Amino acid sequence: MSAPHERGTELVMPELQFDLRRATELQQRLAAIVESSDDAIVGKSLDGIIQSWNRGAERIFGYKAEEVMGKHISIIAPPDRVDEIPRILARIARGERVDHYETERRTKDGRILTVSLTVSPIRDASGVIIGASKIARDITERIRHQQELEEANRALTRSNVDLQQFAYSASHDMREPLRTVATYSAMLKRKCGGQLGELGDEYIGYIIEGAERMQKLIDDLLAFTRAATMEETDPEEVDANAALSTVLKTLESAIQESAASITGSGLPLFRGHRFQLEQLFQNLIVNAIRYRSGKPLEIHVASERSGDHWQFAVQDNGIGIDPQYHERIFGMFKRLHSPAEYPGTGMGLAICRRIVERAGGRIWVASELGRGSTFFFTLPA
Ligand code: ADP
Fold first, then answer.
1. Which helix (H) or strand (E) segment is 259 a member of?
2. pTM (2 decimals)?
3. FRET partner for 132 with CA separation of 20 to 30 A, picked from 9, 21, 268, 381?
4. How remote is the CA of residue 367 from the centroid of ligand 1, in Å?
């Protein structure tokens, strides 16, 4: 025995009640969204006849809705793209979607636009596909910017290579005449020193000094251009402790002279370029020695893992650097002192920055005047 049930009686649940007003409102809101879209939104039948055309489509293609309604969609296809329309419609008829298809369309005044199309089937209440809705986004500007950017990048790479070659050959070729100046002025001093009068000796001294300084500048410029080519070789297993030992041996006499105490801790084994790490350690330690204060010099080299990089630190207790110069000192030939105060070419930190940045790392300094400096740099682990 079944209990009387209410199926069949015309009881309508309140939440299922068909609210015509709400539905109309919703429809109007959707229509407003379609109308106000920046993209072209176009409805068409399966045989390509335009059935709706929003304001975005008017703006992008230049045709008013009344000009195109009832016409075939091929009206906006350039001659060489007409073929793709039946292919797209055939896919829609099979129930497929076309997503972000990049192609070209033609405006009313004949301009060719690059567009990204997304086309999807429209179904009736029973699920039968009765047409297609197409969203076309004008990406002409974006593509043009992208192409300009690619072209600018290529030009930049070319000019970098040229500059690199120029710097290399210029500095290489300058060595020869410079050697002549240096050799002959040294000979002049040896053979004729004392015969040219006090002023003559003084001038020879300037020539020799100038030639030596020029020699250092050229060496550093060459080191700078070479810093860029190092990473073209394959990475190897690098023992940072061994790299530091090599550098300390190279700098032995400067270390003894300055009575520097140099310690290292936590230095890793990693894959990289040993020569680069040595050059970084060497330039930073030479600076720590050069810019020491009156205190007994202490230099500490440390490292720690930071994400996918190793972060190295070279810390000294020297004269320190005013924070306003923390960026500037990494520029080429940028120095804070005259050669009379401290020798140098202003290239050491520029070379360090080039090495580190080409390897995909970063270099920076933490320092205050009179409070020592810590140079940090990172290298991919
Ligand atoms: P250079 O030492 O040949 O002048 P660098 O590029 O190595 O060139 O350094 C640029 C400037 O940064 C130096 O002239 C100096 O003023 C400052 N500097 C670099 N290292 C230190 C340091 N450890 N302590 C204080 N000042 C430093």
1. none
2. 0.65
3. 21
4. 12
